[in-house]
Design goal:
Number of helices: 10
Number of strands: 5
Order of helices and strands: EHEHEHEHEHHHHHH
CATH topology of the largest domain: Rossmann fold
Number of domains: 2
Largest sheet: 5 strands, parallel
Radius of gyration: 17 Å
CATH architecture of the largest domain: 3-Layer(aba) Sandwich
CATH superfamily of the largest domain: Response regulator
Helix content: 40-55%
């Protein structure tokens, strides 16, 4: 009997995942967490065999949560399941310690396969992620401009490119407007850009936003 913790802020998604696991051939016991802090609390309190984690949750970002989980339980496999395409967060997730990365439009059978693979100690990498990892290895030392950004700066850049205002970004990330402005200034400097329009164009060209 495998214990699976589902970390996602949408109730309908958690229920859907429970149903997929119930319909699978394995035997799973599920726990649910609707935000990052709850995920960390449950990881501290109970033993789990695998965590299914969304990247986009209120407060702590999925990448922040992932890094904290790996500090607390380095051997605990975490499977990232998100609406964001592999181009946007897969590489950062794997580098942060994820054992696999799937998008929410994946087939239920692929999810079950991924869960079993990471619980056995392996990494679940589909063809698209494999190509991204291979490209990262082949890439020159400098890499793309956005590769120099911290995870939080990258998150702020994507939200700016999606048309959010500083106030909206601050509310979504549970940070102050001043802090968002600081992140914006820092990432613009790293990206060698001056305006939000330049950031937006870059993000679209590099398929970093939907």
């Amino acid at each position: 009997m495998a214990k699976v913790l589902i970390g996602d802020d949408h109730s309908i998604v958690r229920q859907g995942l429970r149903q997929i696991l119930a319909d699978g051939k394995g035997h799973y016991v599920c726990g649910e967490a609707e935000n990052g802090q709850m995920v960390l609390d449950m990881v501290n309190k109970e033993p789990w065999d695998v965590i299914i984690l969304d990247i986009s949750m209120p407060g702590l970002s999925g990448l922040d949560i992932l890094k904290e989980i790996k500090k607390i339980k380095p051997r605990l496999p975490v499977l990232v399941l998100t609406m964001h395409s592999e181009d946007q967060f897969a590489l950062r997730s794997i580098k942060a310690g994820a054992s696999g990365y799937l998008t929410k439009d994946s087939a239920p059978e692929e999810l079950i396969k991924a869960i079993n693979k990471v619980m056995e100690g392996g990494k679940y990498v589909n063809q698209q992620l494999a190509e991204i990892l291979a490209a990262d290895i082949e890439r020159n030392v400098e890499g793309p401009l956005h590769g120099t950004l911290s995870d939080r700066e990258y998150q702020v850049m994507r939200l700016i490119a999606s048309g959010r205002t500083a106030k909206q970004i601050a509310d979504e990330l549970a940070l102050s407007v001043k802090t968002i402005s600081t992140y914006r200034a820092r990432l613009l400097e790293k990206m060698k850009m001056k305006t939000n329009a330049e950031l937006t164009y870059y993000a679209i060209q590099n398929k970093l936003v939907e």
